[in-house]
C-alpha cells in the first residue's frame, strides 16, 4: 500500500480534514454574519447621521419656517440673502463629509404635486454640489417608487430609508425624516443622499478584513486541532499494528501505553486479551495432545477387543455346529429306541419265538450298545464344548468390563474437552471481533467433545447389552452343562441296560419263561428312555438357539468395536487438525 493511500485511509487524516471543513464552515458563517452585522451597523449609522442633522434643524424650526415662507413661489431665489444664509450653511456643512453626498430639504406632503403622472416635490434648500448637478432651489424633484415609499414611512414613523436605487447621477441610498415646528406641523422633509459606491467600498474593505482574519484564525485552529488529534490518536496506530500481528497468529508481543483515558484502558484490555488467548492456546495444545494419546490407547484397545470378539464369534459358531450335530444324534437315538421298544413288544408277544429271535436281538442289542457308547462320547464332547464356551463367554464379560472402563475414560475426556471448549468460546466472545476466528475453533472442539461423549455413551450401552447377554449365556451354558451331565448319566444307565440285555439274551434259552416279564420291564424302561431322549433333543434345540444368539451378539459386538475403532480414528484425526490449527499461533 502506497504512502498516499495509507494517508487517505488514516483516521487521523480524516478527522483533521473534517475539522478543517468544520472550521471553514464556521469561519464562513462568521464572516457572513459579520458582514451582515457590519452592513446593518452602517445603515444604523446612516440613520444616526440623519438624526444628528435633524436635531439642529428642528431646534431652529422657527427660523427655517421663516426662510421657507420667504422663498414663496420664487423659482430662482437669491440664497445669498441673510435670511437664507444660516439654512444654506447648514446644508453645505453636513454635505461632503464621509459618505454623505447631498443634504437637502423638500416640501412637506401637503405641497406634493403630480408631474407627468408621478408625484413630485420642490427642493427648498440643498448643498452646493446638488445645485451644481442642476437641481436648484424650488426645482421640482420627481419621487421614484422606492423614494416615495421611504418618504411615506418617514412621515408616518419619523424616519425612512430607501433601498439602493439608480438615477442619472449614480447609485444612492437615501434616508429622510420630517422637520416639524413647535406645533408639530410638518414644514419640510430632510433628505440625505449617500453614495452607494462609497458604502459598498467600505463594506467590501470590512469584508476582506474579516475574511483575512477568519482565514488566519482557521489555519491556526486547524493546525492546533491537527496536533491535538495526532497526539490523542497516535496510540491507535500502535494498536493497529499489534492487531495485525495478532490476526497473523503472532501472540508474542504485548502493548504498554501509559495513559489513563479510554485508549489507555483499551490498550490494557487488549494486552490482557493477548495473554489470555496465549494461555488458552497452550491449554488447548496440551489437551489436544492428551486427546491424541488417549485416542491411540483406545485404538489399540479396540483392535484387541475386535480380535477377541472375532475369536469368540468363531468359537460360538463351532459350539452351534456341535449343538446341531448333537441334536441330530439325539433324534437318531430316539428313533433307535423307538425301534427297540417295538422289538421288545414283539418279544413279549412272541415269547414262543424268543429263541429264534435271540440271535437277532443280540445283534440289535449290540448295535444299540454301540450307539449308546457313541452318544456317551458325544455327551462328553458336548460337555467339553459347553465348558469351553462358558470360559470364552467369561473372557468376553471381562473384555466388556475393560471396554466399559475405556468408555468411561472417553466420556471423562469429552467432558473436560467440552469445558475447555466452553471456556474458549467465552474468551472468544469477550475478544469480540478479534476473537471470531478462534470462536470457530472453540466451536469445533466443542462439537468434537460432544461427538466423543455421544460415541462413548453408545459404546457403554452396547457394552451393557453384551454384559447382560453374556451373563444370560453363561447361565444357559451352566444349565446346559448340568443337563448334559444328567443325560450322560442316563446314557450310562442305558449302556448298562444293554449289557444286561445282551447277558439276558445269552441266557434266553434257559430263562424263556422269565423273558416275558423282563420284556415288559424293558418295554417300560424303553419308554422312559425315549422320553429322556426326546427331552435331550429339546435341550439340544435350545442349546443350538442359545449358541446362535450368542454368535449374533458376538457379531454385533465385533461390529460395535469396529465402529469404536472408526470413531477413535476420527477423534485422532480431529485432534491432529486441532493441533495444526493451534500451531498457527505464536505464543
From TrEMBL:
Regions that span the bilayer: 12-35, 207-233
PROSITE patterns for this protein: CHEMOTAXIS_TRANSDUC_2, HAMP
UniProt record similarity statement: Belongs to the methyl-accepting chemotaxis (MCP) protein family.
UniProt keyword terms in alphabetical order: Cell membrane, Membrane, Transducer, Transmembrane, Transmembrane helix
Full protein name: Chemotaxis protein
Annotated compartments: Cell membrane
SUPFAM superfamilies linked to this entry: Methyl-accepting chemotaxis protein (MCP) signaling domain, Sensory domain-like
Methyl-accepting transducer domain boundaries: 301-537
Annotated signal peptide: none
Main location: membrane
A cellular component annotation (GO) from this entry: plasma membrane
A Pfam match: HAMP
Domain HAMP: from-to ranges: 230-282
UniProt biased composition (Basic and acidic residues): 324-338
Amino acid at each position: 500500500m502506497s504512502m498516499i493511500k495509507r494517508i487517505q485511509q488514516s483516521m487521523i487524516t480524516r478527522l483533521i480534514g473534517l475539522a478543517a471543513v468544520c472550521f471553514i464552515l464556521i469561519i464562513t458563517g462568521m464572516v457572513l454574519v459579520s458582514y451582515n452585522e457590519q452592513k446593518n451597523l452602517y445603515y444604523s449609522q446612516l440613520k444616526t447621521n440623519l438624526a444628528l442633522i435633524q436635531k439642529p434643524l428642528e431646534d431652529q424650526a422657527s427660523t427655517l419656517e421663516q426662510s421657507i415662507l420667504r422663498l414663496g413661489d420664487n423659482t430662482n431665489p437669491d440664497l445669498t440673502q441673510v435670511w437664507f444664509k444660516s439654512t444654506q450653511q447648514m446644508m453645505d456643512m453636513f454635505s461632503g463629509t464621509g459618505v454623505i453626498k447631498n443634504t437637502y430639504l423638500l416640501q412637506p406632503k401637503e405641497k406634493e404635486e403630480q408631474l407627468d403622472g408621478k408625484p413630485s416635490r420642490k427642493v427648498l434648500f440643498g448643498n452646493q454640489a446638488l445645485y451644481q448637478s442642476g437641481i436648484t432651489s424650488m426645482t421640482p424633484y420627481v419621487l421614484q417608487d422606492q423614494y416615495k415609499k421611504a418618504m411615506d414611512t418617514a412621515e408616518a414613523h419619523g424616519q425612512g430609508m430607501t433601498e439602493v436605487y439608480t438615477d442619472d447621477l449614480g447609485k444612492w441610498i437615501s434616508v429622510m425624516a420630517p422637520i416639524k415646528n413647535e406645533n408639530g406641523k410638518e414644514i419640510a422633509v430632510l433628505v440625505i443622499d449617500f453614495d452607494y459606491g462609497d458604502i459598498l467600498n467600505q463594506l467590501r474593505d470590512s469584508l476582506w478584513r474579516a475574511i483575512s482574519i477568519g482565514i488566519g484564525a482557521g489555519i491556526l485552529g486547524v493546525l492546533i486541532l491537527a496536533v491535538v488529534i495526532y497526539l490523542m490518536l497516535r496510540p491507535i496506530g500502535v494498536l493497529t499494528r499489534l492487531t495485525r500481528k495478532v490476526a497473523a497468529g503472532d501472540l508474542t508481543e504485548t502493548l504498554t501505553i501509559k495513559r489513563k483515558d479510554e485508549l489507555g484502558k483499551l490498550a490494557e484490555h487488549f494486552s490482557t486479551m493477548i495473554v489470555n488467548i496465549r494461555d488458552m492456546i497452550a491449554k488447548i495444545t496440551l489437551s489436544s495432545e492428551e486427546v491424541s494419546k488417549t485416542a491411540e490407547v483406545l485404538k489399540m484397545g479396540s483392535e484387541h477387543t475386535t480380535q477377541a470378539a472375532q475369536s469368540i464369534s468363531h468359537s460360538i459358531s463351532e459350539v452351534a455346529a456341535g449343538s446341531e450335530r448333537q441334536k441330530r444324534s439325539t433324534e437318531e437315538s430316539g428313533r433307535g429306541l423307538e425301534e427297540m421298544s417295538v422289538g421288545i413288544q414283539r418279544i413279549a408277544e412272541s415269547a414262543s419265538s424268543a429263541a429264534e429271535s435271540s440271535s437277532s436281538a443280540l445283534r440289535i442289542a449290540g448295535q444299540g450298545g454301540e450307539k449308546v457308547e457313541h452318544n456317551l462320547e458325544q455327551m462328553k464332547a458336548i460337555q467339553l464344548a459347553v465348558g469351553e464356551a462358558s470360559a470364552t463367554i467369561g473372557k468376553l464379560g471381562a473384555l466388556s468390563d475393560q471396554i466399559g472402563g475405556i468408555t468411561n475414560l472417553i466420556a471423562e475426556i469429552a467432558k473436560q474437552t467440552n469445558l475447555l471448549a466452553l471456556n474458549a468460546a467465552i474468551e472468544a466472545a469477550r475478544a469480540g471481533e478479534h476473537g471470531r476466528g478462534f470462536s470457530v475453533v472453540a466451536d469445533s472442539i466443542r462439537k468434537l467433545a460432544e461427538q466423543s461423549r455421544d460415541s462413548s455413551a453408545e459404546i457403554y450401552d452396547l457394552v451393557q447389552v453384551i454384559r447382560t447377554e453374556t451373563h444370560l449365556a453363561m447361565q444357559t451354558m451352566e444349565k446346559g452343562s448340568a443337563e448334559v451331565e444328567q443325560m450322560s448319566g442316563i446314557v450310562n444307565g442305558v449302556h448298562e441296560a444293554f449289557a444286561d440285555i445282551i447277558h439276558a439274551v445269552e441266557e434266553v434259552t434257559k430263562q424263556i419263561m422269565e423273558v416275558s416279564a423282563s420284556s415288559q420291564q424293558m418295554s417300560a424302561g424303553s419308554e422312559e428312555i425315549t422320553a429322556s431322549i426326546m427331552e435331550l433333543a429339546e435341550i439340544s434345540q435350545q442349546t443350538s438357539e442359545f449358541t446362535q444368539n450368542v454368535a449374533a451378539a458376538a457379531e454385533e459386538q465385533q461390529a460395535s468395536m469396529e465402529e469404536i475403532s472408526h470413531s477413535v480414528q476420527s477423534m485422532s484425526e480431529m485432534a491432529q487438525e486441532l493441533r495444526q490449527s493451534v500451531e498457527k499461533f505464536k505464543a
